Each structure stands twice: as structure tokens, then as C-alpha cells.
Input
Amino acid sequence: MSDNKEKTDGLVSLVIDGQPVQAKEDWTVLETARHNHIHIPTLCYHEAVQANGGCRLCVVEAKEGNWSKIVVSCLYPVKEGLQISTSTAKVNNVRRWILEMLLAECPASKEIRTLAEAYGVNSTRFKIDRPTEQCLLCGLCVRVCEEVVGVRAISFGSRGVNKQVATPYMVPNNACVACGSCVTVCPTGAMQARLNMVRGNVSERTGHGHAH
Amino acid sequence: MDRVNKAEDLRELRNRLIAAQDTSRPVVRVCLGPGCLAQGADKVAGAFKKAIKDRGLQADVKPLIKETGCHGFCKLGPLVNLDPSGLFYAQVKPEDVEEIVEQTLVKGQVVDRLLYTENGNQYQTASEIPFYAMQQKIATRNLGLIDPILLEDAIINGAYLAAAKALSYMKPEDVVKELELSGLRGRGGAGFPTGRKWRSAVDAAKKSPGMVYIVCNGDEGDPGAFMDRAIMEGDPHGVLEGMLIEAYAVGANQGFLYVRTEYPIAVKNLKRALDQARDLGMLGQNILGTGFDFDVQINRGAGAFVCGESTALFSSIEGKAGEPRAKYIRSVERGLWGRPTVLNNVETLSNVPVIIDEGGDWYAHIGPANSPGTKAFSLVGKVKNVGLVEVPMGVPLSRIVEDIGGGVPGKDHFKAVQTGGPSGGCIPYSLKDVAVDFDSLIKIGSMMGSGGMIVMDDTDCVVDVARYFLHFLEEESCGKCLPCRLGLKGMVEFLDRFSRGEGSEEELDELVSLGEAIKDGALCALGGSAPNPVLTTIRYFRDEYLAHIVDKKCPAGVCKSLITYSIDTDKCTGCGLCVRNCPQSCITGETKTPHTINGEACVRCGMCLESCKFGAINVA
Amino acid sequence: MKKKATEIDAILDRYPGEPRYLISLLQDVQAEYNYIAPENMTLICDHVGVPLTQAWSVATFYKSFSLEPRGEHEIRVCCGTACHLKGSERLAQSLERDLGVERGHTTEDLRFSLDTVNCLGACALAPMVMIDDDYIGGATQRGIRKYLKKI
Ligand SMILES: Cc1cc2nc3c(=O)[nH]c(=O)nc-3n(C[C@H](O)[C@H](O)[C@H](O)COP(=O)(O)O)c2cc1C
Ligand code: SF4
Ligand code: SF4
Ligand code: FES
Ligand code: FES
Output
């Protein structure tokens, strides 16, 4: 392996969908694919923040020697000789089910609907509890607020099916600097819709409250 | 107690304690394990103390009362064992204590009525009872034997000797080798070879010098499993000794013990043991004069099953919500605070001192070659001898359930056995002879898991059981990844429909496809194995699913929408007890004449069934 | 309340001011006061140096924390597997009916909190119900009703 590295100046060679590509050692499969204009769908990925592998839409099949496995491309590190297939039957089964479930989870999001249609998913068998919901809890807003803005005005609350993005006690958080970064990274209209709940009425701020 | 400054001190201390023991002094061991405690064992122990005090028994007959950890035969609790006679008394009540003291302790006679009887045989000692005779105890060796509060008791039984041997006479490398040789595989669920895990940590630490941590996983979240609880409560020094040996092997100076919050007694006993071990000099700085430092901190879980998963557990110790992260970089390389961290289960670690003592080669020869050693199970559900058992790996399932467990009360045989906890699989009776080891269970679609073994009979509905497990996991999903958060909810929707007699045969296949998507797509093993109970029940009990979906019947009589309550007019005496208990007031009838249930208002709560003294309520 | 509650400052002093002690502190406060009041949450945050968002997120993630005062008596119905097979769901439902609250909640008069738990470790006695510190094995709907009338 180390021989290979020397030969290729810190680049690794792998194959994505039959196409030989090269990647920097610390790249992920997704970064490599994007660099080579190979499309892999994502919802919870954004260059500005650390990937967290939550939406699982970016799954691909990775083959190494004679073992193969479904992995998420946004986190999976490249490796010399890796063979990646971006749309096998297994991969598409995962994506289609996720998208169908998302149609029930955030029925109000047109971005999700468009993506689902691209995979031939036009309706959902699952129960719709909140018809106006657009948020898929990808966490991009939470991550950008923490990692990029450095404020941590919003976070996740509760867990599992009750999980939500919110401010503590669901009251506007004075720590919010109203920069709008969360709205920018949100893959749907969800953050825009709840922005007022996060920042409150900025004109009524006292100027205190940036305690943390 | 004296502090030990070198390995020799410990051996001398032990010899002194043994010599000081009065071997003729009777010992009363009252089991205070979870099962016995719930049946009032603490009151039994109290009654012994009081009876002995009241009688002012002479010093030479004054028995030593030990309040021990789980003795295993929970069904017969509270259990009392007497030494040196070896007598075993079952279902002892505080009222029986006076008689035991008078007859057995004072006069040396046996109280026959408290002995255990099975198939007409009466047993005087525990070791003769088939339930015990077929077991082999390694991880649970000290349970029921020692009083976990007394350090002397642990030392007399050999506590810390293996650690002394490792620290003083073996190089860390030798310890790792011994573990590799033993073939011990992790008892927390995945069955990863422990020696190999330790080796990776050593290698990772070489690449990145600095702190190495070890963590003992005592989160035991499986609903219906209590092996780790029993070990932590009943033999806390055994767990600490395992941790100490591990720490020495991988070069860790700090250990964490993560204990499920619902186990307050385990936390208490472990804390006390920690203090004792520090005073003794087996924890802290310069242990046994070897220059090795090690200490342990206890963290209580806060009520999240997912925190049993390694990366979630680390988040929790760091003070965060327990969300797993992808493990493409393994936690032996990057765990707690980004440092190499070795996570092992309580039972795994409890095996370690014995392996060091007896040698890896000895251990490797117990059970099958690829799954050596013994495994503890909590045997529960529709089985006669509910309790904690430990058997060599590889024994047939029927040995555990039928021979040791005594089979299903009142039935010919079990219907299914769930192994591997909520994300394990349901094994049908037709596979009753499957060898219980890691690989054989995986082959039939189930898994070893941490050791819960739940026996079901024909009154248990597999659709209901699958729904129960899925619902449990849905509630415990951290919600980070979509296949798990949305998928488990979706699977429950399917199962809800089936249990109402809705759906179609095609939907059964769709459910399998959804299950596969979740297995492939989920981030951590909670989601990744959650579909197992559904997939295995569909595989082995497809007919029962079809009975619900096609015939609209629940053969086991469990699924509420598919059953009706009615009153057998021949048996009903018209006493009216059910009328008074029915919360819906939907039972009517004249006094002393047979009553009837108005099916529309009935919520199928079972109150009438529970209250009727004449067995006149039918459920079908 | 049985005895005078430990002052919050004394609880804070038990742990060094590092983020990793957030959960331990929340546990101690929960144990002492039966719930985590907003002002105590803020004090904990200041002590260990984490933003309120993290503490709130943690306190709502784990099941053992409550942000609202709990009832005087804790009723815990075991819904572990062994108990489920022996009808614990029916027990839980009947308690919900009798008390007029859903599981996980507290009656309006703050008398009872009703919860389900996963395995109390006494599966031999399934179904198990724990009321405060008492274990009730082989529990029946009627038995529990009688027990509750007594306290
Ligand atoms: C959702 C989930 C829950 C788990 N719960 C436990 C547990 O309660 N106790 C345990 O020892 N291991 C549990 N595990 C397995 C651990 O992650 C880990 O594999 C184990 O503690 C490693 O120790 P071992 O190698 O000694 O088995 C769980 C895993 C998952 C995915
Ligand atoms: S609001 Fe938008 S960015 Fe935030 S979690 Fe929801 S979908 Fe993701
Ligand atoms: S599989 Fe479930 S528990 Fe695991 S990360 Fe995904 S949502 Fe969380
Ligand atoms: S983009 Fe990879 S999991 Fe969401
Ligand atoms: S399942 Fe209820 S006590 Fe174990």
C-alpha cells in the first residue's frame, strides 16, 4: 500500500460505477464522486459542516476484495482499489423506502417530492401525522449554527420519533444572532418556516443574553 | 484490612483470612438477587438476624449471615443455602426462619418441607438439583457464594489473585496473548474476539501515544435480561479485577464503568467495591508496587437503550446525548475524547480473571472451537424454572429450555424462543436442537445477543411479539438516521395493520423489503438489527401472519381486534363479580343467572377474565 | 418531601466544572428535586460550562430526566419481554384508565406518576409492578387497584 502512495503522490485510485478515478487520501467517497461529476443524492450533507451520515440517502455499495457492503458515501473514506457502485438494487431499495417515508414525514416539502419522483416514488403508504411539516431533521441547521457561526442557538430535543429541532424550552433564544445561516443550508423550507420561533422578535432584544 | 504492596502480600492476606475462618461455624447464605429480593428476601435475611439475636445464640453456633447475589433459581425465591451442610431451602418466608434456626442451626436437622421437590425427588443440596447440575459457572462463579459487601469474602474466594499474577509476573503482551489463546468472544452481543480487540488498542496506542481508556459496558438494556445486573450486584470485585487486568494489558490508566440507571443496587455495590479496592491497594497508584496506576469511575446511564452501543455510550460519558456515529474509524482507535478506547461487556470481563488463572488454553477447550467458554442466560417467559443459568457454549437449545428450564408449565413443548434481545430472532420449536453459540444462531437468522432467552408458548402471538420488539426499538431509536427513525415507525404501522386483521399477503413481502432496507441503511446496530424479530417470525411463522391477514384470526388469542370476550353460560353462576369490575359497564345479567358481555362496548381489558372465579370467561 | 432537600450549590460542588459532568449533575438534581427546574438547569450549565442548548437537548434525550415535577408516588409497570408475555400491557392500560393519565405523565393532583420500564430484573414474578420501593410480583389489575387505595 505504501508503495502505491509513493507512486501516486498521496493519491489513491478507486473505481466508481466502472470509472477509474483518483482521490486525495483524506477524501470521502462522496467528495471523490462529486469531484468527478458522478451524482449521488444527499440531504444531510453540506460542504460547510462536518458530515454526520444521518439521512442515509447517499448509500452506495462498496466492494473490496470479495466482500461488499452498503456504506454511506459522505463518510466512507477512500481506499486504494475500492470499487463503488452508486445505484445497485440494494442501494435503490434503501433510497426508495427512505423517500417514501419522507413523503409522509415532511409532506409539505416540494424539494423532497421532486427528489422522490426522481426515484419513481410518487405516493406513500405511511401515515401522515403533520401535513404541514417540511423538516426531515437532517441537522444541517444545528451543525452550521455550532460549527460555522459558533453560537449554538438551536439543538435537537427529545429522541427517536419525537425528535425535533428547537431552542431550549421552545422559546426564542437570545443567543441567536439572526445570521440566517441555518436557512441557507436547510435542504427544504423548514428552517425558514420556523425562524421566528428561534430568534424571536429581534427588535425587542435588550442586547443582553449572549451568555454562552 | 491491610494494604497490599506486592503480589505476595495479597496471597499472605488471603492465607491469614482463611486461617482465621472458623470452618465449623455455620453460614446462612440468603440470596438477595433481583428475583429473590422482589419476593421479600431482605425480610428473610432480617428475620435470620433477629432470630439469632433474640435467641442469644452462643458464639460457637452463631451463624454468619451472608446476603449474596443471585443464586440463579429465581423461580423458587427467596433461596437460602446453609454451609457447611450444603442444605438448600426454597421459597423461604420470614415465618419459616424461626423453624430453620431451631431445627437446622440448633439441632442439625433438615426441614423437609422447605426442600425442593421435582418429579417426586426431594433434593437436599443445590448441586444435586438438575437445574444446577447441568450448569457450568465461570462468569457467575461467585454469585450466591460470597457476600458482595465483604471484601474478605471476595479475597478468600480468590479475588485479585489473577490480577496480581498478571501485573507482577506477566508482561502486558503476555496477557493479550493469553486472551487471544482463550478465544474469548465478547458477551455484549457482537461476539468480537476480546484478545483481538485488545491487540488493536495496543497497536492504536503505539501509533498515537497518550491516554488509552477502557470502558466496561454495564448498560444491559435488553428488556428481559439481567445477567450483567446479577454479576455487578453479586460479584463487583470480579468485574473490577477484569477491568484491572484489561487496563494493564492495553496500558490504560483510567477506566469507566457505565451502569444502567435502573440498577441502583449494582451502583451501590460497585461503589463500595471501588472504595475497598482502593483501600486494599488494588486500584490507585503503583498497584502492588509494579508502578502501574489505574482507577475506575462509575457513570450511571440515564435511560437510553441506544447508549449500550459503543459510540453512543462514549457520547454519554462525555456528557452529551447518546447518538451513535459511523464507525468507519473504529473506536479502539478513536473513542472517548478521540483517544483509543476499549469497550467490553460486564460478563466478558468477569471471565477474564479465570482465564488468567487457568490459562487461555484451558478456556479454549470449553465449548466449540469458534465460540469457546460458557455463557450466562436469563431464562424467562413461559418456562418452569425461570432464572439465571450459565452453560457451556454449543449446548442444544432444548438442553437449556427443557432440561434445565423444565420446559413450559402445563404444555408439551415451547412454541418459540427469542434469543438476542429485542433485535434478535425467534427460534421455532422445530429448531430446538440448534447449538447455542455465536455462529450457529446467526445461521438461523437469530443471534446470541447479550443472553436474554425468552420462552413462548401457544398463547403467545408472534405478530404481537414482533410488534412489541419493534415498538420498543422505535421508542429507543435515537432518531439520528432516517431508516431507523422512520423505518421502525413504518414497520410498526404494518404490524399494527396485521394485528387488526388488515393488510394483504403482498404487504407481508413489502414489510420484508422494508426490513432489508433498514438493515442495509441504518447507521448503527440498533437500527441495523431491529428488523430481525419481524424477519425471523415471517420466515418461521408465516402461517400465523396469514391467519391474521387472511382469516382475520389471532390463533394465540392475543391481538385485541381479533378476539372477543364472551361468557360461558354453563359455567357462569351469575355472581356478578365481573359486572363490578368491568370498567366499561358492558356486562349485564340478573343475579344468579348467566351474564352476557356486550361486545361493542368491550375494550378487551381482561378484567372479567381476571376476576371470574368460575372460569366462565372465554376469549377467542 | 421526606427531608429537606440538599441545596443546589452543595450538589454542584460534588463535581468539577467540566462538560463531562453534565449528566451526573442532572441525575443528582433529578434525584434530589424529582425534576429539573429551569433555574437549576441554568446553574448546572454555568457550572460545567455548556450552553443551555446542550443541557436541554441532553435532558430531553434521556428518559430518566423530567422537566416537570413528578408525582408523590411513582408507579412503574414493567413492560419488559417476560412481563409483556404475561399481560403487562393490559395492566398499563388499566392504570391509564384508572388514573386518567397516559404513561410517562403525572396526575393533576401530583399524587401519582405512571411509567413503564423495561425489565425490573424479577422476570420470575412477571408481571411486575413497582410502586415507590415496593415490588409487586404477579400483579393483577385488581391487586394494583387495591394497593393504590391503601396509599
Ligand atoms: C443498540 C445497542 C445496544 C447495546 N447494548 C449493550 C449492552 O447493554 N451491554 C453490552 O455489554 N453491550 C451492548 N451492546 C454491544 C456493545 O456495543 C459492544 O459491542 C459491547 O459492549 C462490546 O463488549 P464485548 O466485546 O465484551 O461484548 C449494544 C449494542 C447496540 C448496537
Ligand atoms: S430545519 Fe432544515 S436544516 Fe434543520 S434539520 Fe430540518 S431540514 Fe435539516
Ligand atoms: S440506527 Fe437508530 S439508533 Fe442507530 S443511529 Fe440510526 S436512528 Fe440512531
Ligand atoms: S448525505 Fe450521507 S447520510 Fe446524508
Ligand atoms: S421483564 Fe418484567 S421483570 Fe423482567
In short: Chain C is about 45% helix and 15% strand. The first helix of chain C runs from residue 8 to 12. Chain C has a mean pLDDT of 92.
